[in-house]
Amino acid sequence: MTKKDPRIIVGPKVGEDATVIDFGDKYLIAKTDPITFTTYNIGWYMVNVNANDIATMGGTPKWLLASIFLPENKTDTKLVKEIFHDIEKAASELGIALCGGHTEITHGLDRPIVSGHMLGEVNKEKLVSNSNAKAGDEILLTKGIAIEGMALLAREREKELSEKYGDLFVKKVQNYLYNPGISVVKDALIANQVANIHAMHDPTEGGLATGLFELAKVSNTGVVIYAEKINCLDETRVLCSEYKLDPMGVIASGALLIVIDPDDRKAVLNKLTRNSIECSVIGKLTNEEEGLKIIENGEVKDLPFFQVDEITKVI
């Protein structure tokens, strides 16, 4: 453990999406995240997943450094240009400046790996730290679950899925990357405008269930979730059934968990709805000793825990 710096407001902790450093009149938010599940649009992916974690802390993503590791004997000018084009396109869409990084040919790789290092900033009074969540708070979920996972699955198993479900079905699921989309920057910034947000978390590897475990751990609370309130898109149900995956444990970028005081529910839901972002109350935080529970068909069960992401059964 390194020496504690008093300017570190939020340090390394399970359930917090980024670190926060005091920079005078504002807080600097810093995040690093690699892309390892896919090579498709890898630069675009990297920008969006890092930007998500800045936004969940209440901040605006601003600056990006990219580390790009390329495979021996498989790298050409076309690949390099594609990666940088995707990075620049995604950064431009979110108003982020690409300001540095590192690129190399790396021995032993069979595919490109891209890691982002993103910085953002937030006014001190609008910082969202997940340790502030407390028992009695309500849990909101935007968009739905397993969005990223289904897009990856439709890309990796395109041929066999097209033969069984048709090209239109597969193209629709592949387009989940963009509609409903894996970015939660808009969701987070809108919610933070209208209420005192106690916590925000974007569930990624391990799906919604793992995101809830992380949230409960950092806030020292329990959880009760209403299964029927969780939005699971029709195509997601079909593909999870096809491959025997539990959608609660599938990589879930695109969903945003928002934790608020019940008195703020109406304002947040209304603001998100007016901005065409689907959102619902899926549960609440409870006392820690009550554990993590999910109610399905009237039966109270333990929330499932996933040692590894469900998508690894297929990809």
Approximate helicity band: 25-40%
By CATH reckoning, the class of the largest domain would read Alpha Beta
Number of helices: 9
Radius of gyration: 19 Å
User: Going across the major beta sheet, what is the strand order?
Assistant: 8-10-7-11-9-12-13
- How much of the polypeptide forms β-strand, as a percent range? 25-35%
Oligomeric state of the chains present here: single chain
Number of domains: 2
SS-based structural class?
alpha+beta
Largest sheet: 7 strands, mixed
Shape type: globular
Low-confidence stretches: none
Pfam family, one: AIRS
Protein name: Hydrogenase maturation protein
Domain PurM-like C-terminal: 134-290
Domain PurM-like N-terminal: 15-122
Please supply descriptive tags for the structure shown above.
HypE, six-stranded mixed β-sheet, 9 helices, PurM-like_C_dom, 60s Ribosomal Protein L30, Chain: A, alpha+beta, 315 residues, PurM-like_N, Phosphoribosyl-aminoimidazole Synthetase, Chain A, domain 2, globular
Would you write up a description of this structure?
- The mean pLDDT is 94.
- The protein is built from 9 helices and 13 strands.
- Helix 1 (42-55) runs parallel beside helix 2 (77-94) and helix 6 crosses helix 9 (265-274).
- The chain folds into 2 domains: 8-126, PurM-like, N-terminal domain (60s Ribosomal Protein L30, Chain: A); 130-313, Phosphoribosyl-aminoimidazole Synthetase, Chain A, domain 2 (Alpha-Beta Complex), CATH 3.90.650.
- By secondary structure, it is α+β, with helices and mostly antiparallel strands.
- It has helices at 42-55, 77-94, 147-156, 158-165, 167-174, 185-194, 207-219, 234-243, 265-274, and strands spanning 8-10, 19-22, 26-35, 60-71, 97-106, 113-123, 138-142, 199-201, 221-226, 256-260, 279-287, 292-296, 299-302.
- Strand 4, helix 2 and strand 5 form a beta-alpha-beta unit.
- The longest helix is centred in the N-terminal third of the chain and has 18 residues, at 77-94.
- The strands form 2 sheets. A 7-stranded mixed beta sheet has the order 8-10-7-11-9-12-13, with helices on both faces. It has a 6-stranded mixed beta sheet with strand order 1-2-3-6-4-5, covered by helices on one side.
- The protein starts with 7 loop residues before the first strand and ends in a 13-residue tail after the last strand.
